[in-house]
Design a protein that fits this description.
Layout: H1 2-22, H2 24-38, E1 43-44, E2 47-55, E3 64-69, E4 71-75, H3 83-92, E5 97-98, E6 100-102, H4 108-111, H5 114-120, E7 122-123, E8 126-127, H6 136-147, E9 152-153, E10 160-163, E11 166-172, E12 186-191, E13 194-198, H7 204-210, E14 219-221, H8 233-239, E15 243-246, H9 259-267, E16 271-274, H10 275-278, E17 280-285, E18 290-295
Parallel strand pairs: 4-6, 5-7, 6-8, 8-9, 13-14, 14-15, 15-16
Antiparallel strand pairs: 1-2, 2-3, 2-17, 3-4, 10-11, 11-12, 12-13, 17-18
Length: about 300
């Protein structure tokens, strides 16, 4: 009896080998198909295996989350009312620390929620322009940094931040600019063959100065919520993005984005996403391919 079972097992094993060999091409094709569907933005053990950039819906404000494996960067943190909502959202993603927390400039719609972020997460580096303001929002940031023993760092133009095999280069920061918007930290992030340009609230004056830099990018964060004071034709043409993102609030009192900006984007055939229409916009990339998703997040404090 035992000998019969052993013979049967041997026969079944041989049949299995024959089937695998015969259908190997079909099996490989099926596996490759499944891998190709899921190879962008997969998560293993709470680590994002490919670069992920989330343009968060924070109304008429900016907040951009960058995740790559176990590294996290946050550029801006929305309005004051967005801070606690951002904390709840980041907790849902199991984020416990930020390698870099960057405030592009000291306006409330960019750094309003910074104190909530500082008070709830481990921060390895905090970057902002050195131009001070006397607003309560800015004072709250300084108090939070002091309470948590975190240094206020102001990077220089040209500084390179390396995030594993991803590089972020600071293309502009003007601590002496007359307009606070023009102090904005401008960052180009490059991951293999894909790049992102983050522009804060810079005006056409800074855009013109950037024309001498390597600003070409796959994805462009449109400056100043699509204001008519930014996104000149020359700048868009030199940047030459495939995609653009406008972080903007619904029915805002500034009439952002300006029709002139939208017209220029359309004329240059740049696919444009807007947080007032598309909610939070998520780009996932392996450095060559890009997957774009629109998701609803409870991150707008109103």
């Amino acid at each position: 009896m035992k000998k019969t079972k052993k013979v049967l097992k041997t026969i079944l094993f041989l049949i299995l080998i024959v089937l695998i060999t015969y259908y190997s091409d079909e099996i490989n094709e099926l596996l490759n198909e499944e891998i190709s569907k899921d190879n962008i933005g997969t998560i293993v053990n709470n680590k994002v295996n490919n670069l992920e950039v989330q343009f968060l819906d924070v109304g008429e404000a900016d907040s951009i989350l960058i995740r790559y494996q176990d590294k996290n960067i946050l550029i801006d943190a929305g309005n004051n009312a967005d801070g606690k909502k951002l904390v709840d959202y980041f907790n849902s993603l199991n984020i416990t620390k930020f390698d870099y927390l960057i405030g592009t400039h000291a306006h409330e719609d960019h750094v309003g929620g910074m104190d909530d972020i500082i008070n709830n997460y481990k921060i390895n580096h905090f970057y902002m322009p050195s131009k001070l303001t006397t607003t309560k929002t800015f004072e709250d940031i300084l108090d939070s940094l002091d309470k948590n023993n975190i240094s206020f760092e102001t990077p220089n133009k040209g500084k390179i931040i390396k995030l594993l095999d991803t590089k972020l280069k600071i293309l502009s920061i003007d601590n002496d600019a007359e307009e606070l918007n023009d102090t904005s930290i401008v960052i180009k992030m490059t991951y293999k063959n894909v790049s992102f340009l983050f522009t804060g609230d810079i005006s056409s004056k800074v855009e013109n100065a950037l024309l001498s830099e390597d600003i070409s990018s796959t994805v462009l964060k449109i400056a100043h919520h699509g204001s008519s004071y930014s996104s000149t034709y020359n700048f868009l043409e030199k940047t030459n993005p495939k995609y653009a993102v406008i972080e903007v609030g619904k029915n805002n009192s500034y009439n952002h984005p300006a029709k002139s900006v939208i017209n220029r984007l359309n004329k240059l055939n740049i696919k444009t996403y807007r947080t007032d229409k598309n909610n939070t916009i998520v780009f996932k990339t392996d450095g060559n391919n890009i997957e774009i998703n629109e998701i609803k997040t409870n991150t707008d404090g109103g």
